[in-house]
Amino acid sequence: MNPVAPVISVKASGGNPWRFCLCLILLSFALLPKSVEAHQAHAGITEISWNNNTGEVEITHRLYAHDLEPRLFQTPLSGWENTLEGIEKVGRYSHAKFMMIVDGEPVPLSYVGAEPEGEFIYIYFTAPEIENGKTIVVRDSLLMDAFDDQINLVNVTLNGQTHSQYFRYGDKGKTFLWQPLSD
Fold this sequence. Notes:
This protein has 183 residues and is α+β, with helices and mostly antiparallel strands. It has helices at residues 17-31, 34-37, 65-72, 84-97; strands spanning 43-50, 57-64, 98-102, 105-106, 110-117, 120-127, 134-140, 151-158, 161-168, 174-178.
């Protein structure tokens, strides 16, 4: 048995179907809980790639500013990017929450800097060249100490191919094959 859909009259909006649709949309937003209206996703993206010119590994984290700033600073939009102390604090936090391991040893990461761009904060690191054919273990817990629903996507791009892994709260290291040079 099919339920009968209610008939909605366009006359309630003065006969203009567009005005009626707009009223319906505005009403639906008014009825949503406040938590649904706010930013829902706690997510970050990390890009790892090999720079063929320098031989270095380049790591870029992209996090929502309105997630990271309250975690590290008293107030969002505090101007942290204009102070050496603020930039260093972002670097220390990121270094503590992200790691790459090869042959059981952590890969030394060099902090390059951080910058806000729109609603995101970009955080940059480099690492020394990794031997071709090695397996790297990546650990990414950025912002997982602030949000238990945080999801971080790590992309390793080599030879134009991207391999991705998702990290969630409680995840341990995940492996990638480091093969920037074709045999």
